Amino acid sequence: MLEARNISLEVDNGEESLLLLNDVNFCVPCGHFMAIVGPSGCGKTTLLKTIAGIKSATEGTFVWQGRDLSEEGDFEPHEIGYVPQFGIAYEELTVDENIENAARLRVKADSETIDDLIDMALVMTGLEEIADRQVKLLSGGQKRRLALAMELVAEPRILLCDEVTSGLDPRSEREIVQLLHDLSRNTGCIVISVTHSLEQIHLYDSVMVMVQGNLAYHGSPSAMQHYFSVEDVKDVYPRLSQREPEEWRVSWLKHRVFYYQRLEKEHVEKYRSMGTKPPTPRSEEEAPELPGFFSQFIRLLKRRLTIFFRDRSQLLLQALMILIFPVLVALFADKGQEQLLTISETRGPDMVQDVQSQQERAERRARVGSALSGIVMFEVILLGLMGSNNASREVAGERLIMEKEKFAGMRVPAYVASKAVFLAGLVVVQSLWMYAFVQFFGEFRGDSSNLLYFLIMANAAMTSVCFGISANCRTADQASLLCIYLVGFQLPLSGAVLALPDMVNTITQPFVSAYWAWSGSIKGGLNPEELKAVTGIVQTTFSDATLCSAVLWGHVVVGLLLAWWGVRRERWE
User: Fold this and answer.
1) Which of 73, 79, 349, 424 lies 20 to 30 Å from 173, alpha-carbon distance?
2) 519: nearest Cα among 451, 572, 417, 437
3) Please, which residues have CB within 8 angstroms of residue 435's CB and are 6 or more apart in sequence?
4) Which stretch of 109-113, 193-197, 536-540 has the lowest confidence by average pLDDT?
5) Residues 6 or more apart from 51 whose CB is under 8 A from it?
6) How far is 317 from 312, CA to CA, in rounded Å?
7) Is the alpha carbon torsion for 252, 257, 258, 260 positive or negative?
8) Whole-prediction pTM
């Protein structure tokens, strides 16, 4: 049995506090199908999220099978399922693949058991005939069925559904409500569904009516008309506006004993007519065990790779960047191949000729130095842009799905590690290709292995920082914009074009990864003569390659820590 005892939820709303839930009390037995209804903004979804633990009640407690959740720990992931209003499936994957991923992230079992759970979920939700269809091809009703199937693989004891019938046609709505009705009967699961519609009210075992955070009624659907003194249940909403919310709450407290006695009697008679006893909760020994870190990591990484190779727009963008960006750098590569002329220590008899010769050498040295510096910075900036594209939407673009999977038992370290490994693969491939392509058209005049190292670090640093930004942004568009701004400021703040004032440079330089990759490539890689040519035309001071490497690694670590912190935080809205 699930019991709510004096649940209240109050939040600050600027100058005053807002009471979202006011002293809500109810009891729901196992194998029960309950609707939460009421006008828009009455607290239906807030109550559902409070049951789930997504929102914390400021007063009161929930009791589950005699366990006080506020004192003895919240629901275990296997005990509760939550189907939110938003989609929780990946569009590029098939129905079967989404259900399999949900099962392998939530249940530790052998392949045969997992297959049985998947088949069971497909059959119960009527999706077996479209198991191989991609989610982006499904109708609204089919997507709602898929969301239910992804919860059923863990065989939860409580299933919470938030507006799963909203926006559906009448036929699809009835099918979904009938499915939830059958689930409660066949599995003994408590199913609580938030809905605005009263069309299928007869299929519920009980109906809870909310009005501005107050419980106005919780009883049998057949008794609603009598309680609210209306001829049709559709007239309940207009009837609610005729009294103050607090009056409805007080009225319900006076009459609830009678209606609860009736509910209890109907509950027993319902299962008696089915020839069974009311269901009892499964023991802890029967509860599924959550997979470990490594199992979840492998599953998440496989899923990410599958989505990547099926997302044609992303693949095309990656291909264009990998093909076009190195070509842009190679167009200027020949400018850095002009040979330097050494300045003679002895002077000839013709002073005019000596001056002209020295002037020619100085001009050539400036051209070569400018070209070498510009080419390296061009590579660094383009790799930074690739890094931004790699990671800016990586978490923010799937935040709601991620929050749902965390709620279901996905481990944060496994999620962050899977993303980090995937992004590391992109970094290595992009950087190696940039290095190889440019080297083919114009060999680096110095330690090429040092150049390759710093190109990889330039990409890795920007990718990691943008990964951290993505994990802390609410939307993918917000994350993309911030990451583009970050890349856009790299060139002017690096000092490659113009040296910044010392005061500004001291503040900004530690955060500009382009400077450290550019500086490390030149100071630690160029031959002595070429290095003199570069330092002769660049006003910015170059740092030691070891320091550059350490700072770039610092960017990587900070980015990963930001990502872990951002993923760990709960952001459902």
Assistant:
1) 79
2) 451
3) 448, 451, 452, 455
4) 536-540
5) 2, 4, 62, 158, 160, 192
6) 9
7) positive
8) 0.89
